[in-house]
Design a protein that fits this description.
Distance between the termini: 20 Å
CATH architecture: 3-Layer(aba) Sandwich
Strand content: 15-25%
Bound molecules: fructose -6-phosphate
Order of helices and strands: EHEHEEHEHEEHEHEHEE
Strand order of the largest sheet: 5-3-2-6-9-10-1-11
Number of strands: 11
Radius of gyration: 17 Å
Largest sheet: 8 strands, parallel
Helix content: 25-40%
CATH topology: Rossmann fold
Structural class: alpha/beta
CATH class: Alpha Beta
Number of helices: 7
């Protein structure tokens, strides 16, 4: 796990965008795994800016998003499809037919989950997966206790996740109770992972990631078993907490 410490959210977003742009330029047919939430918004803003200024093309790029709320169709402003269209897809030259997000409004969610898993496999898997982290250590919507063997599946959201995401809704009661998410095994099959960690409310989760053993009660810890993970973290999220020499960590302090 390589940990790159940056000064603040803006610097993290810019570095993450440079990282992604470099991958897209060297492999125009790349399959990206994408996340929603507040953390990657700056990354997406920089990708759009780069697309406008430097003409990086996404015409041959395929994307798979991590998750979607149950019961939200793409016209619902709370849906992750809507979020991705507004935050990224509408502003770059990607073919929307190549952007995949699990459907939260399908009649048979279990079948949707299985088909999503097969779809990822049929595209040869994900080359680079972008991840954020929940304050309880979730990745995607894989809450504490989720099996590391899990494939794309339906989940009940925990109270802490619904509270954290209530900021995108008028009232917490409006936050869906369920979601569909890539499983931990799905995420772990990505060839490479870029984890973005920003802000004081991620401090404790990052500290746990540094100090805890890999365990299913803290889903993000599984990334320690992945051979190609880069973490970009800002100082507010607490890099100072890092202990040199722990495990296989490679630490790149900010300059
Ligand atoms: C989003 C996702 C979640 C978020 C996590 C952090 O698609 O799967 O795991 O990455 O909840 O959310 P933010 O970035 O809003 O703090």
């Amino acid at each position: 796990m390589k940990i790159i410490e940056v000064k603040n959210y803006e610097e993290m977003s810019k570095r993450a965008a440079d990282y992604v742009v470099e991958k897209v330029r060297s492999f125009p047919g790349i399959t990206l795994g994408l996340a929603t939430g507040g953390t990657p918004l700056g990354l997406y803003r920089h990708l759009i800016e780069d697309h406008r200024n430097n003409l990086t093309s996404y015409q041959n790029v395929t994307t798979f998003n991590l998750d979607e709320y149950a019961g939200c169709d793409e016209t619902d402003p709370h849906s992750y499809r809507y979020f991705m269209n507004e935050s990224l897809f509408n502003h770059i030259d990607i073919n929307k037919a190549n952007t995949f997000i699990p459907r939260g409004d399908g009649e048979d969610m279990e079948r949707e989950a299985q088909e999503y898993e097969q779809l990822i496999a049929s595209h040869g898997g994900i080359d680079l997966q972008i991840l954020g982290i929940g304050s309880n250590g979730h990745i995607g919507f894989n809450e504490p206790g989720t099996s590391f063997q899990s494939q794309t599946h339906i989940v009940e959201l925990t109270d802490s996740t619904r509270e954290a995401n209530a900021r995108f809704f008028d009232r917490i009661e409006d936050v869906p109770l369920k979601a569909i998410t890539m499983g931990i095994a799905t995420i772990m099959r990505s060839k490479e992972i870029l984890l973005l960690v920003s802000g004081p409310n991620k401090r404790e989760a990052f500290s746990r990631l540094m100090h805890e053993e890999v365990n299913e009660q803290f889903p993000v810890s599984v990334l320690k078993n992945h051979p190609a993970v880069t973490v970009m973290i800002d100082q507010a999220a607490g890099c100072l907490d890092y202990t040199p020499g722990s495990g296989d960590l490679e630490y790149v302090p900010h300059d």
